[in-house]
Amino acid sequence: MSPDPLNLTDERLLNPQTLNKYGYATDNPLKYVDDDGKDITVFYEKSGALDPTSFGHIMFVAENQQTGDAAAMSFGPVHDADYGLTPLGAPVNSTNSFISPGHTFSADDIRQNFASITIQTSPEEAQKVIEFIRNMTPGANPYMLFKNNCTTTCVQALKILGLLPSKSSIITPKSLWKTLSKTYLKSNSTNFFGQQKAPTNGVNYGYQPGYDPFQLMDLLNKQCTDSWDNNSNTLTSTCH
Prior knowledge:
This protein has helices at residues 107-113, 123-135, 150-160, 173-184, 213-223, and strands at residues 38-45, 57-63, 70-73, 76-77, 94-95, 115-120, 204-205, 224-229, 234-239. The chain is of the alpha+beta class. The chain has one domain (11-239). Strand 8 and strand 9 form a beta hairpin. The longest helix is centred in the middle third of the chain and has 13 residues, at 123-135. It is globular.
């Protein structure tokens, strides 16, 4: 009976049904269950959090509430012999399970170093992002600091659903967080002077009872991790 948050972007105006704040489960409540309508979470680490030369980091997770299917993406460079070339923008080996220097992938570590924002989608939309994550092969997508990085990967996923304009050229974690905050947190993302508030680590903006994206990201990344084998020159996926 209460209205959902509204995902309003220029491209979504093409679909008038997305403007209906009282729509439930894609207007098919007999087939879908959509307890809170929030299925995609973007995690943001501030620049220089543990490394003064770092631009920060973006991770994201998608969950299909209809089926329980979920996938996580933490795109970044592999810590191999070429890792030192990343500041130059040169293409280096990539992984979908990147762990920032000084981090672990525990839920507590993610809470201590990341803020997150959850975006309303339908189960079908969440599944599109899940498939995007699974179909993105690291070997075919080298990491490039200024072109193909953690932020641009997340931007690609959001563009698929029209959550960001197709011409969006955001490449830094801070810029993406600001853009998402302005779109989805207009009521509490600025201070008295109209300035953007700094996010608080460990807070999931758009939090709903029973949903813990930090724990979900932890669990998903414990399932599979990628590592580069210098001897065979191949990327190996280890699943637990």
